[in-house]
């Protein structure tokens, strides 16, 4: 905790403190940035700051952790995980739980503003502020100095923001509690940086509204989401159809508008290999969809990729009047244009001049590729089956042994009528029942492999099947 100096020269007024600036993501306990001896003597609150700094040199994100024994921390009106993320939520809690408390005096007992240690704000003596109920210093919207927690100089949080910037992201203490993880630039699935190249086509941002005035804001690589069965078309309990499923907030996002943007991006991409890579990623998202607009867009993309592979240049696609729709006529959103007519016109486009194409050779090549994939898939599935079979049977034997011990202990208990041994045996039986329940729960979690290893939670595979999952 940072040290604190008290200036007693201001007699008759509020105590004056020398507030020691702290590092981004710093934390501590008690004064000057958290209450002490409230509501009971000896009660100490903890504080923590985030990475963002306002133009005034104060941290925009600051959190207060109350003593665990305080009442009312498990109700719907209390903060999640016993942490107050704003002054307003803390004030509501105090007024509800301690109706006799002097709220202005409480906030006057410590400093809500916490200066940053980057030399942005010189150390000086400040009076402890008192805010009215409708004021909240956390609502500063000017941010001159920003810091990416992951140290990424190209993070979206440190780049100039446009005027139509989306709503702020909800503070997260789960994945964002990990060191070096930034929800603005780190993939929630692999934890590696996203790329802003070509308009950031290669990642998805979850913009689902998770609370009043806040969005989820977590990002993920499209390829990571596809590999994790969290994007594209996926059956089962997730039930995706050209959509993205956010692991953080469980929201779904339609990816057809996202792929529509690929077409617009390709209009300015200079290298043909990059264009093909962008379009192929879009095809991976749409493939298997049962939606008409996704099917038509997929046909359009695959047709364009074939033309590029067969010798049609980017210049021909962009300059030819008949083909200009390939790059410009697909709307980014579904509003204002007739998608069906536009996509149909794209399917009717034919390349100029003869195209060298050996149908038999291409089909033979595709056949070999598919056979290799199927052979590899069969081997992988057989290996997974053997691992699952061994572990599940081992867990079954473990439960069988426990059931035998439990039956033996219950029989022994029934033979005893009274005495100290009865209490001892009863304790043993109860402990054995608890052990059986835990092992049964473990077996139920292990049975998640019925969905396939690719859709089994990572923690289950690592803990119960001893499989190391690479990022």
Our measurement of the CA-to-CA distance between the termini, rounded to an integer number of angstroms, reads 35 Å
| Residues in helix, % | 25-40%
Q: Estimate the mean pLDDT confidence.
A: 76
Largest sheet geometry: 3 strands, antiparallel
By helix and strand content, what is the structural category? mainly alpha
Strand order of the largest sheet: 1-2-6
Q: What is the strand content?
A: 5-15%
Beta strand count: 13
Order of helices and strands: EEEEEHHEEEEEHEEEHHHHHHHHH
In DSSP terms (H or I, runs of 4 or more residues), the helix count works out at 12
Biased composition (Polar residues): 1-12
Domain DUF7615: 359-464
Pfam families: DUF7081 (PF23299), DUF7615 (PF24590), PHD_Oberon (PF07227)
Protein name: Protein OBERON 1-like
Question: Tags for this entry?
Answer:
mainly alpha; 4 domains; three-stranded antiparallel β-sheet; 9% strand; zinc-finger; metal-binding
Description:
The chain has 471 residues and is mainly alpha-helical. Helix 10 runs antiparallel to helix 11 (420-446). Residues 1-14, 75-81, 119-145 and 321-357 have low confidence and may be disordered. It contains twelve helices and 13 strands. The chain folds into four domains: 1-147, no CATH class; 151-254, no CATH class; 259-357, no CATH class; 377-464. It starts with a strand and ends in a 7-residue tail after the last helix. The strands form five sheets. It has a three-stranded antiparallel sheet with strand order 1-2-6, with no helix packed on it. A hairpin with a 6-residue loop joins strand 12 (240-245) and strand 13. It has helices at residues 87-97, 103-108, 222-227, 256-266, 272-286, 292-309, 314-319, 325-328, 339-347, 359-415, 420-446, 458-464; strands spanning 5-7, 16-18, 27-29, 46-49, 62-65, 125-127, 203-205, 209-211, 214-215, 219-221, 231-234, 240-245, 252-254. Residues 359-464 form the DUF7615 domain.
